């Protein structure tokens, strides 16, 4: 059976701007072929067993040929797989939609197209520039800013519009500025350049047709960048909002958590992550293990046990969920429970099962392998390939600039996954630690701790990270 392809727009960079339809297709895709401008965190919507293929194109560097990408889409689909071709921005705006759709149609592969929020409009909005504004701008046009063999820039006609937005225009910026002046644009026309718009790397530079080239050179702005030309660019200084968020500019790796059937473990961590995201941060949990429920490991009905010992916190939630799924009366929960450590005991209390001190357990529940008759390996725990793929891409594209540790086990978890010493890997990043034991462990490993709190609730953690932004900006 022949598979199919969905050509999906990932949006301009901010992982939160991908469409719901796009996410739904990513969740069921067998193969994802994605571009450089797709933020790696968007890949977290893909399933664990999916194949993720990077086909990034670096300006004036190594590039995957367009013909190779098209052949790849066809090959995977012919193998009966559902393929998502994931593109930054909108597939139909300077993103080879036409070529890829034609190639699929020519080989008899069915496809669909899911639009995305184009970088031109989103980047302008995140920079504080409205593309149109009543009497100042009643039209906007997108222009390719770099050359193609089949059409040199001298053949590109500048559209007649009040606002022009150039894509990837850094290398030929002087050429375009000269063209604008020659074709009647005032040299005093406002210009805003937005680099890596809508992401933690976003930077903006403002000037005029006459001055913007020197401003860009002074700030070392490179592609990917948008050049916004027109009177509405005057609003940038007053209407900018994204770069004013307290955590904008921070890409946080929060060390060490697990994944349960595709969902992050820890309700508190999830809520905290969402709060930090609202404040402008991008947050990624790593490493992560996949926990799969082992229903067959229990030999007799759970109601037969009155004394149960839990080896780890994650097992508590699985145990209670299984109890409910089987329809057992909650009033018949084990009379005596114990936990192996403070974290497990806290999980028991959260579920209304205060741990006891005494008594030999009739059943021990945990995630490790154990063949004893009184032991139930309630989950199978395996390293997450998805987490590893995303982490690899974040590192390769230099996204991570802050590392957060909130418990000693997180330090051990991350250190165990790195190819180099933790201190070496963290050397160029801001390190934030919570807890006395966490700080002491990091220091014993030679890791410089830039910000620390003995304890921190959700709001205090946000404040701690906000105070760390100055360190990030200085690096």
Automatic annotation (TrEMBL):
<keyword id="KW-0808">Transferase</keyword>
<dbReference type="GO" id="GO:0019354">
    <property type="term" value="P:siroheme biosynthetic process"/>
</dbReference>
<keyword id="KW-0489">Methyltransferase</keyword>
<dbReference type="InterPro" id="IPR014777">
    <property type="entry name" value="4pyrrole_Mease_sub1"/>
</dbReference>
<keyword id="KW-0949">S-adenosyl-L-methionine</keyword>
<protein>
    <recommendedName>
        <fullName>uroporphyrinogen-III C-methyltransferase</fullName>
        <ecNumber>2.1.1.107</ecNumber>
    </recommendedName>
</protein>
<dbReference type="GO" id="GO:0004851">
    <property type="term" value="F:uroporphyrin-III C-methyltransferase activity"/>
</dbReference>
<dbReference type="InterPro" id="IPR000878">
    <property type="entry name" value="4pyrrol_Mease"/>
</dbReference>
<dbReference type="GO" id="GO:0004852">
    <property type="term" value="F:uroporphyrinogen-III synthase activity"/>
</dbReference>
<dbReference type="InterPro" id="IPR050161">
    <property type="entry name" value="Siro_Cobalamin_biosynth"/>
</dbReference>
<dbReference type="InterPro" id="IPR014776">
    <property type="entry name" value="4pyrrole_Mease_sub2"/>
</dbReference>
<keyword id="KW-0627">Porphyrin biosynthesis</keyword>
<dbReference type="InterPro" id="IPR036108">
    <property type="entry name" value="4pyrrol_syn_uPrphyn_synt_sf"/>
</dbReference>
<dbReference type="InterPro" id="IPR006366">
    <property type="entry name" value="CobA/CysG_C"/>
</dbReference>
<dbReference type="InterPro" id="IPR035996">
    <property type="entry name" value="4pyrrol_Methylase_sf"/>
</dbReference>
<dbReference type="Pfam" id="PF00590">
    <property type="entry name" value="TP_methylase"/>
</dbReference>
<dbReference type="GO" id="GO:0032259">
    <property type="term" value="P:methylation"/>
</dbReference>
<feature type="domain" description="Tetrapyrrole methylase">
    <location>
        <begin position="5"/>
        <end position="211"/>
    </location>
</feature>
């Amino acid at each position: 059976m022949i598979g199919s392809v969905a050509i999906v727009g990932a949006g301009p960079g901010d992982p939160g701007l991908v469409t719901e339809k796009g996410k739904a297709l990513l969740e069921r895709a067998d193969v994802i072929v994605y571009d450089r401008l797709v933020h790696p965190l968007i890949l977290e919507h893909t399933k664990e067993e999916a194949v993720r293929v990077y086909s990034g194109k670096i300006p004036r560097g190594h590039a995957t040929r367009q013909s190779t990408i098209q052949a790849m889409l066809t090959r995977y689909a012919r193998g009966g797989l559902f393929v998502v071709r994931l593109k930054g921005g909108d597939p139909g705006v300077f993103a080879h939609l036409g070529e890829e759709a034609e190639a699929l149609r020519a080989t008899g592969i069915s496809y669909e197209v899911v639009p995305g929020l184009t970088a031109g409009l989103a980047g302008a909005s995140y920079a504080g520039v409205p593309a149109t504004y009543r009497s100042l701008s009643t039209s906007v046009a997108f222009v390719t800013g770099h050359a193609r063999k089949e059409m040199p820039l001298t053949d590109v006609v500048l559209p007649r519009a009040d606002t022009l937005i150039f894509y990837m225009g850094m290398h030929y910026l002087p050429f375009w500025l000269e063209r604008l002046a020659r074709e009647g644009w005032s040299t005093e026309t406002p210009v805003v350049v937005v680099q890596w718009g809508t992401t933690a790397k976003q930077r903006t530079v403002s000037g005029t047709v006459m001055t913007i080239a020197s401003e860009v050179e002074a700030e070392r702005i490179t592609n990917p960048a948008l050049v916004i030309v027109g009177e509405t660019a005057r609003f940038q200084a007053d209407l900018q909002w994204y770069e004013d968020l307290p955590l904008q500019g921070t890409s946080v790796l929060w060390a060490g958590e697990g994944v349960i059937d595709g969902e992050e473990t820890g309700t508190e961590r999830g809520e905290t992550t969402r709060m930090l995201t609202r404040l402008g941060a991008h947050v990624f949990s790593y490493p992560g293990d996949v926990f799969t429920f082992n229903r067959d490991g229990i030999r007799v009905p759970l109601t037969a046990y009155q004394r149960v010992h839990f080896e780890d916190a994650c097992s508590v939630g699985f145990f209670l969920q299984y109890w409910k799924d089987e329809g057992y009366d909650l009033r018949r929960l084990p009379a005596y429970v114990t936990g192996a450590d403070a974290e497990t005991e806290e999980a028991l209390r959260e579920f209304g099962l205060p741990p006891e001190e005494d008594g030999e357990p009739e059943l021990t529940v945990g995630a490790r392998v154990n063949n004893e008759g009184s032991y139930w390996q309630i989950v199978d725990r395996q390293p997450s390939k998805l987490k590893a793929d995303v982490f690899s891409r974040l590192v390769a594209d230099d996204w991570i600039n802050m590392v957060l540790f909130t418990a000693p086990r997180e330090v051990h978890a991350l250190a165990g996954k790195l190819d180099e010493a933790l201190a070496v890997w963290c050397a160029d990043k801001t390190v934030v630690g919570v807890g006395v034991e966490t700080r002491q462990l990091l220091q014993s490993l030679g890791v410089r701790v830039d910000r620390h709190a003995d304890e921190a609730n959700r709001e205090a953690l946000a404040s701690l990270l906000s105070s760390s932004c100055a360190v990030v900006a200085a690096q």
